[in-house]
Specification:
Helix 6 (99-126) packs across helix 8 and helix 36 (673-687) runs parallel beside helix 42. It contains 42 helices and no strands. The longest helix is centred in the N-terminal third of the chain and has 28 residues, at 99-126. By secondary structure, the chain is mainly α. The chain is rod-shaped. Helix content is 67%, strand content 0%. Residues 149-379 form the Maestro-like HEAT-repeats domain. It comes from Erinaceus europaeus. Keywords: Repeat. Residues 585-764 form the Maestro/Maestro-like HEAT-repeats domain.
Length: 829
């Protein structure tokens, strides 16, 4: 009879290795006669003793830990397969000839499994890292018969129980396999076999106890941060209360909640990953259970996931394969859950795929945009990406990038395409309204880069333009889109030469339709303009767009904030930026005839200050100054002294810039409106005669003014411009001017009537010298270009007998100088 040395296993447990070599030898000698009855059982027992010795020897050696683990895992796998090859306990007992043989055979059978369990205990006692073996055991176990599954599950549960007792009181535990092991156990907690479910739930309970000891402070902090994500979840046992194994049986929600709470972010990520890679498995039941657990975990604890990119890649891979419709919906919902807590990570990764996006990627975008509460964060991330310029080379190459041209940044193109998918979504309606100005300008800039992108990707589709049109449509601006289409704006944008004009058309059309987003758009443009300098081409687009909006919405002088912007841009090192600011400054002069004296004087003086700031840009400046002369001249007659002084100041700046000799006439001592007009006209004759007809047209516009002093001043200016350009005017043009002056003959102001009569006389004199034939007029026009008679005062308006003689002489000197310069110019021609 064999002594029952292993019947009292629990009492013989110890903290390290169980039993001694002497005890094992004693038992072995007692069982020698069994070899003849059950050779297979005996061979397995002998092999286990040998394997255990080898494993113990490795534990005591200085072998590299990784090599040691791999070798021990290989031995354990070999041992496990040997266990799988032995018959069931009932079959073994039937081999006995009598009751004693049957009892000895059963004891040997149980001893074999106990020996295997002891080996695992010794490994785990030495190093908790080797709990990884249990995960591999579950994989092997799932391939075997159910009777062995139950036995193996019992062993796994006991080893975990031993490990949980071992780590009690530890503040830190090195067990990196807990995540993947938890994934395997969670699936077994819902097994169809109750005995396996019971052991799996016990094992899960012990695993969670180990997880609690990994880093108590980290878990406490993480749980505090996660409370807001758990408001709608089922109650979770507090950290100070022991987990109840029963709640882990068949209740997937409780399993997911407890695992999500207990595991640290890295381990929870392993848990999620292990479940994710089971979804495409042929075993439908396993795939279904994994999908449910995965969804529930991310529902409550997606914010703890660290390897979002890796998970996104796996989801993309599975969606690309022949997944069932139901599983595709699960995978897409996972993206929605990840976006809910990590929108920036998800969006950046989605934009990192190759361009253009395929149908799978578009489905992923739609999933990411499913929930309205994260729409603002998603759009913020996309706007951040749109700050980049497509085609720019990366300073640091990232090995994992999947772009078709790895050295360049194509994420802005992907972001533009994504917006065409996201903006129409109902969940994004509010966010689109919130970020309209930012999206509008970002897409305008991206559209500007589209020609370069087309060369790079060989793609004829402009995704930025598609997104921009989608933005207009989704923002209630369908009529703007239609109007731009009629103006051929969208087709012009594809041509490099029309980029700036297309930006102008968009701003003008938005203004014409009184788009309701104007106030916030203007605020954003101002913010954009005062921020740190960006690319010069970005600034050009911004100035064009801002300028046109200001032209259409501000009839009064601009606020000081915008005037300072243009003053700064005048000195921009980029010539294009400087030129645009100069053009805008030139268009500011017409607004000085509105509102009241304070506004007029402020506008005129600001204009002069801006001209002073850009005085070194002579070549570009001169022509623009000429365009602004008429209102500056006319408002010299303003009844408010501050307006007069502002005009004097600004005209002095103009005269200095154009190298005219009128400065002395703009002082109070020598001032005479007609002499100033006479001198300016003579200077125009010398240097800018090509502008005379345009200036005449501007002056005619002021004859309709409600202010008498402006009508008086404009009649005088029209008279001088007509006298100067009489040789350039056709008979029909003279008739138009004459009709305008005739209306002034009915004015209530007798001074205006008198000035109008003198002007009519000038016009009649010009008409009398004209020939009747249009052809003759043209020849006369050409001939008169080479000879122009110098001008002298025509009206003697407000000129008294005691007029300063030196002023008259200076004026006549300038007129004579003008004649000489014209004659020299004629000779050269």
């Amino acid at each position: 009879m064999i002594p029952k040395t292993h019947k009292s296993r629990k009492s013989s447990r110890y903290s390290g290795e169980r039993g001694t070599s002497l005890q094992i030898l004693h038992s072995t000698m007692k069982w020698l006669h069994i070899e003849q009855i059950a050779a297979k059982l005996w061979d397995t027992y002998s092999a286990l003793l040998s394997h255990q010795a080898m494993i113990l020897a490795m534990n005591s050696s200085f072998v590299d830990p990784l090599i040691q683990f791999e070798s021990q895992l290989s031995i354990i796998e070999s041992t496990f397969k040997m266990l799988c090859s032995i018959p069931t306990l009932d079959t073994v007992k039937d081999m006995g000839k009598n009751e004693d043989d049957k009892e000895d055979l059963e004891l040997l059978y149980r001893t074999i499994f106990n020996l295997f369990e002891d080996t695992l205990l010794m490994l785990v006692y030495k190093d908790l890292y080797k709990l990884q073996i249990l995960k591999e055991m579950i994989t092997w176990m799932n391939q075997e018969s159910s009777f062995l599954q139950e036995r193996a599950m019992t062993i796994i549960s006991r080893v975990l129980s031993f490990a949980s007792r071992k780590v009690k009181g530890y503040t830190s535990v090195d067990a990196p396999c807990l995540g993947v092991l938890a994934a395997e156990l969670s699936l077994l907690c819902t097994h169809s076999d109750p005995s396996i479910t019971q052991q799996a739930s016990l094992g899960m309970y012990h695993l969670l106890c180990i997880a609690k000891c990994q880093n108590a402070d980290t878990v406490k902090t993480a749980n505090a941060k996660n409370e807001r994500y758990m408001e709608n979840s089922l109650p979770i046992p507090p950290a100070g209360i022991e987990y109840l194994p029963k709640i882990l049986q068949q209740d997937k929600t409780k399993i997911a909640q407890n695992i999500g709470q207990a595991l640290l972010p890295g381990l929870l990520t392993d848990f999620v990953w292990s479940l994710l890679i089971k979804i495409p498995l042929p075993n439908v039941t396993t795939a279904y259970e994994a999908a449910i657990l995965l969804t529930l975990t991310l529902e409550y604890y997606a914010q703890k996931i660290t390897m979002v990119s890796k998970i996104m890649d796996e989801i993309y891979k599975q969606l690309q394969e022949n997944s069932s419709p139901s599983m595709k919906q699960v995978l897409l919902w996972l993206i929605t859950l990840l976006t809910r807590t990590s929108p920036k990570k998800v969006i950046f990764h989605l934009m990192d795929y190759s361009v253009p996006a395929n149908s799978t990627l578009i489905l992923m975008w739609q999933a990411a945009g499913l929930e309205s509460q994260v729409a603002p964060q998603v759009l913020k991330t996309i706007l951040l990406i749109l700050k980049g310029k497509p085609g720019e080379k990366h300073k640091i190459m990232v090995q994992r990038r999947r772009l078709s041209v790895d050295s360049v940044n194509m994420m802005p193109v992907a972001a533009s395409q994504a917006l065409s998918t996201l903006l129409p979504l109902k969940s994004y309606k509010k966010a689109v309204a919130q970020f309209f100005p930012q999206l509008l300008m970002a897409l305008l800039l991206q559209q500007f880069y589209s020609s370069e992108v087309k060369l790079l990707t060989k793609n004829t589709v402009c995704y930025a333009q598609e997104a921009l049109r989608t933005l207009l449509t989704c923002s209630g601006l369908q009529e703007v889109d239609s109007a731009l289409k009629k103006k051929n704006c969208w087709s012009q944008f594809s041509q490099t030469l029309f980029h700036h004009h297309s930006v102008y058309l968009i701003a003008k059309t938005l203004s014409e339709h009184k788009f309701p987003q104007f106030p916030e758009t203007l605020r954003y443009l101002y913010k954009l303009s005062v921020e740190d300098p960006r690319r010069s081409e970005d600034m050009v687009i911004t100035i064009i767009f801002l300028t046109e909006l200001l032209n259409n919405f501000f009839k009064d002088p601009f606020p000081e904030e915008f005037l300072s912007l243009f003053r700064n841009w005048v000195n921009d090192p980029n010539p294009a930026v400087c030129k645009l600011s100069l053009q805008k400054i030139a268009t500011m002069a017409p607004v000085i005839n509105e509102s009241n004296a304070g506004i007029r004087s402020m506008a005129i003086r600001h204009f002069g200050e801006l001209l002073q700031d850009m005085s070194h840009h002579t070549r570009v400046l001169n022509d623009l100054v000429i365009d602004s002369l008429v209102p500056l001249i006319l408002f010299l007659e303003d009844t408010e002294k501050r307006v007069f002084q502002a005009c004097m100041y600004t005209l002095e700046v103009c005269a200095s810039s154009l190298h005219w000799f009128t400065t002395h006439l703009l002082s109070d001592e020598y001032y005479s409106y007609e002499l100033v007009v006479l001198d300016i006209c003579n200077n125009i004759l010398v240097s800018h005669k090509q502008y005379i007809t345009e200036l005449l047209s501007d002056a005619l516009g002021y004859l309709r003014s409600s202010r008498a002093y402006l009508r008086r001043a404009s009649i005088i200016l029209v008279g001088y411009f007509t006298k100067l350009s009489g040789h350039l005017l056709l008979k029909d043009e003279i008739e138009v001017i004459s009709e305008a002056i005739d209306r002034e003959l009915q004015d209530e102001d007798p001074v205006i009537v008198g000035l109008a009569k003198k002007t009519q006389a000038i016009l009649q004199d010009i008409t009398n010298r004209m020939t009747s034939s249009n052809i003759k007029q043209c020849f006369q026009r050409i001939f008169n270009t080479f000879y122009i008679k110098r001008l002298k005062p025509l009206y003697y308006y407000n000129l008294t007998c005691d007029l300063n003689i030196s002023s008259m002489k200076d004026s006549e000197f300038n007129s004579k100088k003008a004649d000489e310069e014209v004659e020299n110019e004629d000779i050269s021609e």
